[in-house]
Protein backbone atom coordinates (compact mmCIF):
# COMPACT_ATOMS: atom_id res chain seq x y z
CA UNK A 1 0.00 0.00 0.00
CA UNK A 2 1.18 3.49 -0.89
CA UNK A 3 0.76 6.53 1.29
CA UNK A 4 0.52 10.13 0.19
CA UNK A 5 -1.95 12.76 -0.87
CA UNK A 6 -2.57 13.24 -4.59
CA UNK A 7 -4.52 16.08 -6.17
CA UNK A 8 -5.96 15.16 -9.58
CA UNK A 9 -6.78 18.18 -11.74
CA UNK A 10 -8.72 17.61 -14.97
CA UNK A 11 -11.82 19.15 -16.52
CA UNK A 12 -13.02 15.76 -17.74
CA UNK A 13 -14.95 14.06 -15.03
CA UNK A 14 -14.32 10.58 -16.44
CA UNK A 15 -10.53 11.05 -16.20
CA UNK A 16 -10.80 12.22 -12.60
CA UNK A 17 -13.07 9.33 -11.69
CA UNK A 18 -10.84 6.75 -13.32
CA UNK A 19 -7.66 8.08 -11.68
CA UNK A 20 -9.49 8.39 -8.37
CA UNK A 21 -10.49 4.73 -8.36
CA UNK A 22 -7.07 3.46 -9.42
CA UNK A 23 -5.07 5.63 -7.04
CA UNK A 24 -7.32 5.03 -4.04
CA UNK A 25 -6.96 1.31 -4.61
CA UNK A 26 -3.19 1.86 -4.42
CA UNK A 27 -3.68 3.42 -1.00
CA UNK A 28 -3.36 7.11 -1.84
CA UNK A 29 -5.64 9.78 -0.51
CA UNK A 30 -7.07 11.41 -3.65
CA UNK A 31 -8.47 14.93 -4.03
CA UNK A 32 -10.04 16.31 -7.20
CA UNK A 33 -10.28 19.68 -8.89
CA UNK A 34 -11.84 20.55 -12.24
CA UNK A 35 -9.73 23.53 -13.25
CA UNK A 36 -6.59 25.46 -12.34
CA UNK A 37 -8.35 27.88 -10.05
CA UNK A 38 -9.91 25.15 -7.95
CA UNK A 39 -6.56 23.33 -7.92
CA UNK A 40 -4.84 26.37 -6.45
CA UNK A 41 -7.42 26.71 -3.69
CA UNK A 42 -7.38 23.03 -2.79
CA UNK A 43 -3.59 22.86 -3.06
CA UNK A 44 -3.25 25.72 -0.60
CA UNK A 45 -5.63 24.17 1.87
CA UNK A 46 -4.66 20.51 1.62
CA UNK A 47 -0.92 20.57 0.91
CA UNK A 48 -0.89 17.49 -1.35
CA UNK A 49 2.36 15.62 -2.01
CA UNK A 50 1.77 15.37 -5.74
CA UNK A 51 -0.42 17.33 -8.13
CA UNK A 52 -1.36 15.48 -11.30
CA UNK A 53 -2.66 18.21 -13.61
CA UNK A 54 -4.01 18.46 -17.13
CA UNK A 55 -2.62 21.28 -19.26
CA UNK A 56 -5.74 22.09 -21.29
CA UNK A 57 -8.58 23.18 -19.07
CA UNK A 58 -11.15 25.99 -19.10
CA UNK A 59 -11.00 28.95 -16.69
CA UNK A 60 -7.37 28.52 -15.71
CA UNK A 61 -5.16 26.17 -17.72
CA UNK A 62 -2.54 23.90 -16.20
CA UNK A 63 0.43 26.04 -17.17
CA UNK A 64 -0.98 29.15 -15.52
CA UNK A 65 -1.91 27.19 -12.41
CA UNK A 66 1.57 25.64 -12.33
CA UNK A 67 3.24 29.03 -12.48
CA UNK A 68 1.05 30.32 -9.66
CA UNK A 69 1.95 27.28 -7.58
CA UNK A 70 5.64 27.93 -8.17
CA UNK A 71 5.15 31.51 -7.03
CA UNK A 72 3.53 30.34 -3.86
CA UNK A 73 6.32 27.82 -3.41
CA UNK A 74 3.97 24.91 -2.95
CA UNK A 75 6.04 21.95 -1.90
CA UNK A 76 4.06 19.56 -4.09
CA UNK A 77 5.64 17.72 -7.00
CA UNK A 78 3.68 18.70 -10.09
CA UNK A 79 3.15 16.21 -12.91
CA UNK A 80 1.52 17.62 -16.03
CA UNK A 81 -0.77 15.58 -18.24
CA UNK A 82 -0.55 16.66 -21.83
CA UNK A 83 -1.83 15.74 -25.25
CA UNK A 84 0.85 15.13 -27.82
CA UNK A 85 0.20 18.55 -29.36
CA UNK A 86 1.17 20.40 -26.21
CA UNK A 87 4.29 18.43 -25.23
CA UNK A 88 6.46 21.48 -25.80
CA UNK A 89 4.53 23.26 -23.05
CA UNK A 90 5.14 20.40 -20.66
CA UNK A 91 8.84 20.48 -21.45
CA UNK A 92 8.83 24.19 -20.77
CA UNK A 93 7.14 23.51 -17.43
CA UNK A 94 9.83 20.94 -16.55
CA UNK A 95 12.45 23.59 -17.10
CA UNK A 96 10.53 25.81 -14.69
CA UNK A 97 10.57 23.10 -12.04
CA UNK A 98 7.70 20.72 -12.77
CA UNK A 99 8.51 17.22 -11.58
CA UNK A 100 7.55 15.37 -14.77
CA UNK A 101 4.96 15.09 -17.52
CA UNK A 102 2.98 12.29 -19.04
CA UNK A 103 1.46 12.12 -22.50
CA UNK A 104 -2.23 11.28 -22.94
CA UNK A 105 -3.55 8.73 -23.50
CA UNK A 106 -1.41 7.17 -20.81
CA UNK A 107 -0.80 3.74 -19.50
CA UNK A 108 -2.04 3.47 -15.92
CA UNK A 109 1.01 1.49 -14.74
CA UNK A 110 3.20 4.26 -15.98
CA UNK A 111 1.30 6.74 -13.80
CA UNK A 112 1.53 4.46 -10.79
CA UNK A 113 5.30 4.16 -11.09
CA UNK A 114 5.71 7.87 -11.65
CA UNK A 115 3.61 8.69 -8.61
CA UNK A 116 5.46 6.27 -6.40
CA UNK A 117 8.74 7.91 -7.32
CA UNK A 118 7.32 11.41 -6.95
CA UNK A 119 5.94 10.74 -3.47
CA UNK A 120 9.19 9.12 -2.37
CA UNK A 121 11.11 12.03 -3.82
CA UNK A 122 8.96 14.51 -1.97
CA UNK A 123 9.49 12.63 1.27
CA UNK A 124 13.26 12.64 0.82
CA UNK A 125 13.23 16.30 -0.08
CA UNK A 126 11.15 17.08 2.99
CA UNK A 127 13.52 15.10 5.21
CA UNK A 128 16.55 16.79 3.70
CA UNK A 129 14.87 20.12 4.22
CA UNK A 130 14.20 19.40 7.86
CA UNK A 131 17.75 18.24 8.40
CA UNK A 132 19.05 21.37 6.72
CA UNK A 133 16.86 23.55 8.89
CA UNK A 134 18.17 21.79 11.98
CA UNK A 135 21.75 22.23 10.83
CA UNK A 136 21.18 25.86 9.95
CA UNK A 137 19.71 26.45 13.41
CA UNK A 138 22.54 24.48 15.01
CA UNK A 139 25.20 26.60 13.35
CA UNK A 140 23.32 29.86 13.63
CA UNK A 141 25.55 32.78 14.50
CA UNK A 142 22.92 33.99 16.96
CA UNK A 143 23.56 30.93 19.06
CA UNK A 144 27.28 31.40 19.42
CA UNK A 145 28.53 31.06 22.98
CA UNK A 146 31.89 32.51 23.89
CA UNK A 147 33.40 34.65 26.59
CA UNK A 148 36.57 35.28 24.67
CA UNK A 149 37.05 38.67 23.01
CA UNK A 150 39.27 36.98 20.43
CA UNK A 151 36.58 34.50 19.53
CA UNK A 152 34.05 37.33 19.32
CA UNK A 153 36.27 38.90 16.69
CA UNK A 154 36.51 35.60 14.84
CA UNK A 155 32.72 35.31 14.81
CA UNK A 156 32.36 38.93 13.70
CA UNK A 157 34.57 38.14 10.72
CA UNK A 158 32.62 34.96 10.00
CA UNK A 159 29.35 36.89 10.09
CA UNK A 160 30.76 39.26 7.49
CA UNK A 161 32.29 36.74 5.10
CA UNK A 162 29.82 33.85 5.37
CA UNK A 163 27.17 35.47 3.13
CA UNK A 164 29.74 36.35 0.45
CA UNK A 165 31.38 34.18 -2.21
CA UNK A 166 34.88 34.89 -0.88
CA UNK A 167 37.38 32.06 -0.58
CA UNK A 168 38.30 31.62 3.07
CA UNK A 169 41.42 30.16 4.66
CA UNK A 170 41.05 28.88 8.20
CA UNK A 171 44.22 28.35 10.18
CA UNK A 172 44.83 27.13 13.69
CA UNK A 173 46.33 24.31 15.72
CA UNK A 174 44.81 20.88 15.66
CA UNK A 175 41.54 20.66 17.56
CA UNK A 176 40.78 24.38 17.65
CA UNK A 177 37.50 24.01 15.78
CA UNK A 178 38.47 24.74 12.18
CA UNK A 179 36.09 22.23 10.71
CA UNK A 180 33.28 23.43 12.92
CA UNK A 181 33.92 26.92 11.60
CA UNK A 182 33.60 25.68 8.02
CA UNK A 183 30.18 24.28 8.88
CA UNK A 184 29.25 27.62 10.43
CA UNK A 185 30.30 29.44 7.27
CA UNK A 186 28.41 27.09 4.98
CA UNK A 187 25.17 27.08 6.97
CA UNK A 188 25.21 30.86 7.27
CA UNK A 189 25.73 31.37 3.56
CA UNK A 190 23.28 31.53 0.66
CA UNK A 191 24.67 28.09 -0.27
CA UNK A 192 23.22 26.49 2.87
CA UNK A 193 20.68 24.63 0.74
CA UNK A 194 23.48 23.26 -1.45
CA UNK A 195 25.97 20.55 -0.51
CA UNK A 196 28.93 20.89 1.85
CA UNK A 197 31.64 18.62 0.49
CA UNK A 198 34.84 17.85 2.39
CA UNK A 199 38.15 16.54 1.11
CA UNK A 200 41.13 15.74 3.28
CA UNK A 201 44.14 16.60 1.14
CA UNK A 202 46.58 14.67 3.32
CA UNK A 203 44.76 11.37 3.19
CA UNK A 204 45.48 10.42 -0.41
CA UNK A 205 48.53 10.16 -2.65
CA UNK A 206 48.79 12.55 -5.57
CA UNK A 207 47.05 10.63 -8.34
CA UNK A 208 44.19 9.47 -6.15
CA UNK A 209 43.67 12.96 -4.74
CA UNK A 210 43.52 14.28 -8.27
CA UNK A 211 40.81 11.88 -9.34
CA UNK A 212 39.00 12.45 -6.04
CA UNK A 213 38.84 16.18 -6.82
CA UNK A 214 38.43 16.17 -10.58
CA UNK A 215 36.74 12.84 -11.12
CA UNK A 216 37.78 10.62 -13.99
CA UNK A 217 36.47 9.08 -17.15
CA UNK A 218 36.20 5.35 -17.54
CA UNK A 219 39.59 3.91 -18.42
CA UNK A 220 41.50 7.11 -17.53
CA UNK A 221 44.01 4.90 -15.78
CA UNK A 222 44.38 1.17 -15.22
CA UNK A 223 42.17 0.96 -12.14
CA UNK A 224 39.52 3.35 -13.45
CA UNK A 225 36.87 0.78 -14.26
CA UNK A 226 34.06 3.28 -14.44
CA UNK A 227 33.40 6.97 -14.64
CA UNK A 228 33.64 8.88 -11.40
CA UNK A 229 32.22 12.25 -10.43
CA UNK A 230 34.77 14.32 -8.56
CA UNK A 231 34.35 16.56 -5.54
CA UNK A 232 34.47 19.74 -7.62
CA UNK A 233 31.36 18.57 -9.42
CA UNK A 234 29.65 17.35 -6.27
CA UNK A 235 30.22 20.73 -4.63
CA UNK A 236 28.33 22.54 -7.40
CA UNK A 237 26.06 25.21 -5.84
CA UNK A 238 27.59 24.43 -2.47
CA UNK A 239 30.80 24.71 -0.49
CA UNK A 240 33.99 22.66 -0.84
CA UNK A 241 36.27 22.25 2.18
CA UNK A 242 39.86 21.48 1.27
CA UNK A 243 41.07 20.24 4.63
CA UNK A 244 44.78 20.08 5.48
CA UNK A 245 45.52 22.04 2.33
CA UNK A 246 49.14 22.40 3.45
CA UNK A 247 49.68 18.73 2.59
CA UNK A 248 48.45 19.06 -0.99
CA UNK A 249 51.11 17.84 -3.46
CA UNK A 250 52.57 20.57 -5.69
CA UNK A 251 51.30 18.92 -8.86
CA UNK A 252 47.72 19.08 -7.60
CA UNK A 253 48.22 22.66 -6.39
CA UNK A 254 48.87 23.83 -9.95
CA UNK A 255 45.66 22.25 -11.15
CA UNK A 256 43.65 23.60 -8.23
CA UNK A 257 44.89 27.09 -8.99
CA UNK A 258 43.45 26.87 -12.47
CA UNK A 259 40.09 25.71 -11.16
CA UNK A 260 40.00 28.61 -8.72
CA UNK A 261 40.85 31.09 -11.43
CA UNK A 262 38.67 29.79 -14.20
CA UNK A 263 35.94 27.91 -12.36
CA UNK A 264 36.18 25.08 -14.86
CA UNK A 265 38.10 21.86 -15.27
CA UNK A 266 38.20 18.50 -17.03
CA UNK A 267 37.86 15.06 -15.49
CA UNK A 268 41.04 12.98 -15.50
CA UNK A 269 41.24 11.35 -18.92
CA UNK A 270 38.39 13.51 -20.22
CA UNK A 271 38.26 16.37 -22.67
CA UNK A 272 34.88 17.87 -21.88
CA UNK A 273 35.19 21.10 -19.90
CA UNK A 274 32.97 21.17 -16.83
CA UNK A 275 31.90 24.36 -15.10
CA UNK A 276 31.47 24.44 -11.39
CA UNK A 277 29.83 26.95 -9.11
CA UNK A 278 31.41 26.23 -5.77
CA UNK A 279 32.77 28.21 -2.90
CA UNK A 280 36.11 27.01 -1.61
CA UNK A 281 37.12 27.07 2.03
CA UNK A 282 40.53 25.70 2.96
CA UNK A 283 41.82 24.71 6.38
CA UNK A 284 45.27 23.93 7.70
CA UNK A 285 47.19 23.61 10.94
CA UNK A 286 50.44 24.43 9.14
CA UNK A 287 51.77 27.87 8.43
CA UNK A 288 51.29 28.33 4.68
CA UNK A 289 53.69 31.31 4.45
CA UNK A 290 56.36 29.07 5.97
CA UNK A 291 55.59 26.32 3.47
CA UNK A 292 55.78 28.91 0.70
CA UNK A 293 59.25 29.94 1.94
CA UNK A 294 60.35 26.32 1.90
CA UNK A 295 59.07 25.89 -1.64
CA UNK A 296 56.42 23.38 -0.60
CA UNK A 297 53.41 25.54 -1.31
CA UNK A 298 52.72 27.74 -4.30
CA UNK A 299 52.63 31.40 -3.44
CA UNK A 300 50.04 32.23 -6.10
CA UNK A 301 47.74 29.55 -4.72
CA UNK A 302 48.27 30.84 -1.19
CA UNK A 303 47.14 34.32 -2.24
CA UNK A 304 44.11 32.90 -4.00
CA UNK A 305 43.05 30.95 -0.94
CA UNK A 306 43.80 33.57 1.67
CA UNK A 307 41.36 36.19 0.39
CA UNK A 308 40.03 36.13 3.93
CA UNK A 309 42.00 34.37 6.65
CA UNK A 310 40.43 33.28 9.88
CA UNK A 311 42.79 32.36 12.69
CA UNK A 312 41.37 30.03 15.29
CA UNK A 313 43.08 30.83 18.58
CA UNK A 314 44.45 27.92 20.59
CA UNK A 315 42.38 27.13 23.66
CA UNK A 316 45.11 28.40 26.00
CA UNK A 317 44.62 31.82 24.42
CA UNK A 318 40.90 31.77 25.04
CA UNK A 319 40.94 30.48 28.59
CA UNK A 320 37.71 32.33 29.36
CA UNK A 321 35.97 29.68 27.29
CA UNK A 322 37.34 26.68 29.19
CA UNK A 323 34.58 26.61 31.86
CA UNK A 324 31.92 27.22 29.24
CA UNK A 325 33.11 24.49 26.90
CA UNK A 326 33.86 22.09 29.75
CA UNK A 327 30.26 22.43 30.97
CA UNK A 328 28.87 21.97 27.47
CA UNK A 329 30.85 18.73 27.13
CA UNK A 330 29.91 17.63 30.65
CA UNK A 331 26.25 18.02 29.85
CA UNK A 332 26.62 16.18 26.57
CA UNK A 333 28.60 13.20 27.88
CA UNK A 334 26.61 12.92 31.11
CA UNK A 335 23.42 12.77 29.09
CA UNK A 336 24.88 10.21 26.71
CA UNK A 337 25.95 8.07 29.67
CA UNK A 338 22.63 8.58 31.44
CA UNK A 339 24.49 10.08 34.40
CA UNK A 340 23.38 12.77 36.77
CA UNK A 341 26.38 15.10 36.85
CA UNK A 342 25.86 18.72 37.78
CA UNK A 343 29.18 20.43 37.55
CA UNK A 344 32.88 20.47 38.22
CA UNK A 345 34.24 20.78 41.70
CA UNK A 346 36.07 24.17 41.85
CA UNK A 347 39.48 22.54 42.20
CA UNK A 348 38.85 20.34 39.19
CA UNK A 349 37.76 23.38 37.20
CA UNK A 350 40.87 25.25 38.28
CA UNK A 351 43.00 22.41 36.89
CA UNK A 352 41.18 22.57 33.58
CA UNK A 353 41.64 26.33 33.45
CA UNK A 354 45.36 26.19 34.20
CA UNK A 355 46.31 23.40 31.79
CA UNK A 356 48.00 24.19 28.44
CA UNK A 357 45.68 22.13 26.21
CA UNK A 358 48.06 21.26 23.37
CA UNK A 359 45.21 19.29 21.77
CA UNK A 360 42.84 22.22 22.25
CA UNK A 361 39.08 21.74 22.27
CA UNK A 362 39.31 18.16 21.05
CA UNK A 363 41.52 17.32 24.02
CA UNK A 364 39.18 19.10 26.43
CA UNK A 365 36.28 17.15 25.03
CA UNK A 366 38.18 13.87 25.49
CA UNK A 367 39.23 14.74 29.03
CA UNK A 368 35.65 15.53 30.02
CA UNK A 369 34.36 12.38 28.37
CA UNK A 370 36.85 10.32 30.34
CA UNK A 371 36.06 12.20 33.56
CA UNK A 372 32.39 11.35 33.18
CA UNK A 373 33.32 7.68 32.96
CA UNK A 374 35.72 7.88 35.93
CA UNK A 375 33.46 9.86 38.21
CA UNK A 376 31.24 8.27 40.79
CA UNK A 377 29.63 11.31 42.43
CA UNK A 378 27.46 14.13 41.19
CA UNK A 379 30.48 16.27 40.39
CA UNK A 380 33.76 15.94 38.59
CA UNK A 381 36.65 15.96 41.09
CA UNK A 382 40.39 16.39 40.43
CA UNK A 383 40.94 12.65 40.77
CA UNK A 384 38.58 12.07 37.82
CA UNK A 385 40.95 14.03 35.59
CA UNK A 386 44.09 12.63 33.94
CA UNK A 387 47.17 13.01 36.12
CA UNK A 388 49.07 15.13 33.64
CA UNK A 389 46.64 17.97 34.24
CA UNK A 390 48.01 18.46 37.73
CA UNK A 391 51.15 20.60 37.81
CA UNK A 392 54.29 18.57 38.49
CA UNK A 393 57.20 20.02 40.45
CA UNK A 394 59.69 19.20 37.66
CA UNK A 395 57.69 21.06 35.07
CA UNK A 396 58.06 24.28 36.96
CA UNK A 397 61.84 24.23 36.98
CA UNK A 398 63.40 27.15 38.72
CA UNK A 399 60.19 29.08 39.06
CA UNK A 400 58.91 29.49 42.56
CA UNK A 401 59.61 27.24 45.49
CA UNK A 402 61.27 23.90 44.84
CA UNK A 403 58.63 22.03 46.77
CA UNK A 404 55.01 22.34 45.76
CA UNK A 405 53.57 20.00 48.38
CA UNK A 406 51.39 21.77 50.83
CA UNK A 407 50.92 24.82 48.64
CA UNK A 408 47.35 25.83 48.10
CA UNK A 409 45.95 25.49 44.63
CA UNK A 410 45.35 29.20 44.48
CA UNK A 411 49.04 29.86 45.09
CA UNK A 412 50.01 27.38 42.41
CA UNK A 413 47.73 29.05 39.92
CA UNK A 414 49.05 32.48 40.83
CA UNK A 415 52.54 31.26 40.38
CA UNK A 416 51.75 29.85 36.96
CA UNK A 417 49.97 33.04 35.99
CA UNK A 418 52.93 35.12 37.11
CA UNK A 419 55.32 32.95 35.06
CA UNK A 420 53.13 33.20 31.98
CA UNK A 421 52.87 36.97 32.19
CA UNK A 422 56.59 37.35 32.85
CA UNK A 423 57.44 35.25 29.80
CA UNK A 424 55.01 37.20 27.63
CA UNK A 425 56.43 40.53 28.76
CA UNK A 426 59.95 39.38 27.93
CA UNK A 427 58.86 38.07 24.58
CA UNK A 428 57.31 41.44 23.78
CA UNK A 429 60.23 43.40 25.19
CA UNK A 430 58.06 44.97 27.85
CA UNK A 431 55.47 46.28 25.40
CA UNK A 432 52.25 46.05 27.42
CA UNK A 433 49.89 46.59 24.55
CA UNK A 434 51.35 43.64 22.66
CA UNK A 435 51.57 41.51 25.80
CA UNK A 436 47.95 42.16 26.65
CA UNK A 437 46.95 41.21 23.11
CA UNK A 438 49.11 38.08 23.22
CA UNK A 439 47.46 36.94 26.41
CA UNK A 440 44.05 38.06 25.24
CA UNK A 441 43.47 40.26 28.25
CA UNK A 442 42.69 43.93 28.64
CA UNK A 443 45.54 46.37 29.27
CA UNK A 444 43.93 47.27 32.56
CA UNK A 445 43.84 43.67 33.72
CA UNK A 446 47.46 43.26 32.67
CA UNK A 447 48.44 46.43 34.52
CA UNK A 448 46.74 45.12 37.62
CA UNK A 449 48.56 41.78 37.40
CA UNK A 450 51.90 43.48 36.77
CA UNK A 451 51.45 45.40 40.00
CA UNK A 452 50.23 42.35 41.88
CA UNK A 453 53.24 40.30 40.85
CA UNK A 454 55.70 43.16 40.84
CA UNK A 455 56.66 42.63 37.22
CA UNK A 456 57.04 46.27 36.23
CA UNK A 457 60.66 45.88 35.15
CA UNK A 458 60.14 42.68 33.10
CA UNK A 459 61.14 42.86 29.48
CA UNK A 460 62.70 46.32 29.79
CA UNK A 461 66.02 46.53 28.11
N1 LIG B 1 32.92 25.91 20.10
C1 LIG B 1 32.85 24.59 20.21
N2 LIG B 1 31.88 24.02 20.93
C2 LIG B 1 31.80 22.69 21.06
N3 LIG B 1 32.64 21.83 20.48
C3 LIG B 1 33.63 22.33 19.74
C4 LIG B 1 33.79 23.74 19.56
N4 LIG B 1 34.87 23.93 18.76
C5 LIG B 1 35.35 22.72 18.47
N5 LIG B 1 34.62 21.75 19.04
C6 LIG B 1 34.84 20.31 18.97
O1 LIG B 1 36.22 20.06 19.08
C7 LIG B 1 36.62 19.01 18.20
C8 LIG B 1 37.68 19.51 17.25
O2 LIG B 1 37.11 20.46 16.35
P1 LIG B 1 37.46 20.44 14.80
O3 LIG B 1 37.42 19.05 14.25
O4 LIG B 1 36.61 21.46 14.16
O5 LIG B 1 38.98 20.92 14.89
P2 LIG B 1 40.06 21.14 13.74
O6 LIG B 1 40.65 22.47 14.00
O7 LIG B 1 39.46 20.89 12.41
O8 LIG B 1 41.14 20.05 14.10
P3 LIG B 1 42.22 19.28 13.13
O9 LIG B 1 43.22 20.30 12.69
O10 LIG B 1 42.81 18.26 14.04
O11 LIG B 1 41.44 18.71 12.01
C9 LIG B 1 35.36 18.56 17.48
O12 LIG B 1 34.85 17.45 18.16
C10 LIG B 1 34.42 19.74 17.62
O13 LIG B 1 33.09 19.33 17.61
MG1 LIG C 1 39.88 19.39 11.02
Please tell me what the overall shape is. elongated
As a whole number of angstroms, the C-alpha radius of gyration is: 31 Å
- Sheet having the most strands: 5 strands, parallel
- Say how many strands there are: 16
Strand order, sheet with most strands: 2-1-3-4-5
Average pLDDT: 89
Q: How would you describe this structure to a colleague?
A:
The protein is α/β, with parallel strands linked by helices and 461 residues long. It folds into four domains: 5-133, Rossmann fold (3-Layer(aba) Sandwich); 148-313, P-loop containing nucleotide triphosphate hydrolases (Rossmann fold, 3-Layer(aba) Sandwich); 318-348 and 359-386, Helicase, Ruva Protein, domain 3 (Orthogonal Bundle), CATH 1.10.8; 394-453, Arc Repressor Mutant, subunit A. The chain has helices spanning 13-26, 36-46, 62-71, 87-95, 108-138, 149-161, 178-187, 206-214, 231-234, 250-262, 288-293, 299-305, 321-337, 346-354, 360-374, 409-427, 432-438, 443-453, and strands at residues 5-9, 29-33, 50-54, 77-82, 100-103, 168-171, 196-200, 215-216, 228-229, 239-243, 264-266, 273-275, 279-284, 308-311, 343-344, 379-380. The longest helix is centred in the first third of the chain and has 31 residues, at 108-138. The chain binds adenosine-5'-triphosphate and magnesium ion. Adenosine-5'-triphosphate binds at residues 172, 174-180, 285, 325, 328, 361-362, 365.
Amino acid sequence: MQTGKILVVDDEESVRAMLGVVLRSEGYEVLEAEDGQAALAIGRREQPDVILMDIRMPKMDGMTAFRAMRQEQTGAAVILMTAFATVDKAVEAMKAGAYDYIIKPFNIDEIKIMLRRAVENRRLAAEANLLRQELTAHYSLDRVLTNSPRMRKVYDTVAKVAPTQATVLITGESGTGKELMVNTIHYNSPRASGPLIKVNCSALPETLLESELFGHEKGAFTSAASKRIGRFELADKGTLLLDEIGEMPMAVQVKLLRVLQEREFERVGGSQTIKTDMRVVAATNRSLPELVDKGLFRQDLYYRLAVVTIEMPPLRERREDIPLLARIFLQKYAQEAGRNLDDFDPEAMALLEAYRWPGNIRELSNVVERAVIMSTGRMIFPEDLPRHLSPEPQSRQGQGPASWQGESLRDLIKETECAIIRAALRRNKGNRMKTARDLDMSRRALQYKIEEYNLAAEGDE
